[in-house]
Write a structure and sequence with these properties.
By secondary structure, the protein is an alpha/beta fold. It is built from 22 helices and 16 strands. The mean pLDDT is 97. Bound molecules: 1,4-dihydronicotinamide adenine dinucleotide. 1,4-dihydronicotinamide adenine dinucleotide (NAI) binds next to helix 8.
Length: 515
């Protein structure tokens, strides 16, 4: 019997390794033959460790399983899908999963992450095989036509970026994957690297074939040691099976990959700092222009994309641009893995076409807050994303709809807060975060953020409130207009949205009266 126990680091954090070891020991004692597969997570994190067994009805899931539950599970005959209080039935019938549209995450949690055979059996490497039969221009056109926009948050058309690199003449070109997933409440990049690493390898290889780059780097944040190891193993396997190397699948085209580990700086998720760091220098941002597409890694034309952008490409190549662009709304085409975190009952990964509302994600998928108290604020798009109020949740997940309310989708992270949140403290935290993480190159970000913390402290202490609120507004305007990159340029968004939508939290006399 095949038993799946996720090796995903979030599942491991809640005991998946202990469950796997106990399972092995019990099976030995009971002389039952089992094969344990350490799959990725399905992204139903409140049910982890979620153990699945293969039965005549298909896969049956149990969860969340603790080592102490295993004796009872054996007694209940769980290896053939027996009844038990933890039995969840077929994973694909669980509404959280059933109501998703999984293109990028089609395999994650289902296959053995390091099995090329299983990757292929589930449609893997078909996009690459097709790309190898096409001209570079045709690949780039297909990606452009699909409407794919950069999943790091800026939403720049991926095909246009690739076209710039393709058309820039150079001896060497590079493909760089930004897997420095630093946004609060995000984990989709990690899930792919741990649960379906060949998908990233395939996407990056297609980018190489499309632009004439023969070398790629995956820059992984230091907080992801498991993902780093898993990616390294997958690259080795891909090399040994002919998917990477001097002659990709016998095409005569070369492409190879290496991983690099970051050192814990949020700013290294900004593309030019990331490139500096990859070159072995301190992570400080570069002036743009020149764009990395023209002068990037080691001064060469470089496709630098977010992991999720690369991971979207195999399905576009395999099923075609028309298939892909049928998903979505307006100018936001395709699907996005939304990551639901914070004070939420059912946290996890929801891949859905753009256009789903924030409310549907938080209530229909997430089941509301974990505390059971009312939702008060939601931050979308990481620590630099705006806060939204509970009455704004009908907003569709769509780049333009978010921009219209001075908010952003970012990398798809959603953090939910209940009515115990103090929004003045959240605003202060945004400025403090910027002060701590600033690379120091430009003054508005480096000094503005420190002054910002001080001004917010004075507002909270009710010192010259009106004057300091005006001062904060001025400071925010300077940071937005004068910062060299998105760190200083976007920090005002959480600050000003907190003031705009939750003014009562910045008004000490009225807070005191309320208490
Ligand atoms: P940007 O708008 O300057 O650039 C977006 C991308 O398009 C870059 O890769 C840029 O090099 C490229 N580009 C622009 N014009 C081009 C052209 N003509 N040809 C080829 N390539 C071109 O945005 P930036 O500063 O890279 O990112 C800001 C965004 O980052 C924010 O909107 C925010 O959503 C997001 N963000 C994401 C975080 C994460 O952890 N994923 C964290 C913080 C911010």
């Amino acid at each position: 019997v095949r038993v799946y126990v996720p090796g995903d680091s979030s599942a491991v954090a809640v005991g998946a390794n202990r469950v796997a070891h106990a399972l092995e020991r019990l099976a030995r004692e009971k002389k039952v033959e089992i094969e344990i597969v350490r799959n990725g997570s399905r992204g139903l994190y409140w049910l982890e460790p979620m153990v699945e067994v293969t039965t005549s009805e298909g896969r049956i899931a149990y969860g969340p399983v603790a080592p102490g539950d295993l004796a009872g599970l054996f007694e209940a005959g769980f290896l053939s899908g027996g009844q038990h209080a933890l039995r969840l039935g077929r994973p694909e019938d669980i509404p959280f999963l059933k109501n998703q549209e999984r293109l990028m995450f089609a395999r994650c949690g289902i296959t053995d992450p390091l099995s090329v055979e299983e990757y292929r059996a589930h449609g893997g490497f078909r996009g690459l095989a097709k790309a190898l039969r096409m001209q570079p221009q045709e690949i780039v056109s297909e990606v452009t036509e699909s409407g794919l926009r950069g999943r790091g948050g800026a939403g720049f058309p991926t095909g246009i970026k690739w076209k710039t690199v393709l058309e820039t003449k150079a001896e060497r070109k590079y493909i760089v994957c930004n897997a420095d997933e630093g946004d609060s409440g995000t984990f989709a990049d990690r899930m792919i690297m741990e649960g379906d690493p060949f998908l990233l390898i395939e996407g990056m290889t297609i980018a190489g074939i499309a632009t004439g780059a023969t070398k790629g780097f995956i820059y992984i944040r230091s907080e992801y040691p498991d993902a780093f190891r898993q990616m390294g193993r997958a690259i080795e396997i891909a090399r040994n099976t002919g998917y990477l190397g001097p002659n990709v699948l016998g095409s005569g085209k070369a492409f190879d990959l290496e991983t690099r580990l970051g050192a814990g700086a949020y700013i290294c998720g900004e593309e030019t700092s990331l490139l500096e760091s990859l070159e072995g220098k301190r992570g400080v941002i570069r002036f743009k222009p020149p764009l990395p597409a023209i002068k990037g890694l080691f001064g060469q034309p470089t496709v630098i994309n977010n992991l999720l952008s690369f991971a979207s490409v195999p399905v576009i190549m395999d099923d075609g641009a028309n298939f892909y662009k049928n998903y979505g709304t307006g100018r936001s085409r395709g699907t996005q893995p939304f990551q639901l975190a914070g004070n939420v009952k059912q946290g996890g990964l929801i891949e859905k076409a753009f256009g789903v509302t924030l409310k549907e994600l938080i209530y229909d998928f997430g089941g509301g807050t974990l505390s059971g108290r009312p939702v008060r604020a939601v931050q979308v798009g990481g620590p630099l994303g705006a806060y939204l109020r509970a009455d704004q949740l009908d907003i569709p997940m769509d780049y333009e709809a978010f921009a219209a309310v001075k908010a952003m989708l970012g990398h798809g992270g959603i953090v939910v807060f209940d009515d115990t949140v103090d929004m003045a403290q959240q605003a202060r935290f945004a400025m403090e975060f910027c002060a701590v993480e600033s690379c120091g190159k430009c003054t508005p970000c480096r000094i503005g953020s420190t002054r910002g913390v001080e001004v917010i402290d004075r507002i909270i202490a009710d010192q010259d409130r009106a004057k300091n609120l005006r001062l904060l507004d001025d400071l925010c305007e300077t940071m937005v207009d004068g910062s060299l990159c998105a760190l200083g340029g976007l920090t005002p968004f959480p600050v000003q949205s907190a003031i705009r939508y939750f003014p009562e939290d910045f008004d000490k006399p009225s807070r005191k009266a309320a208490e």
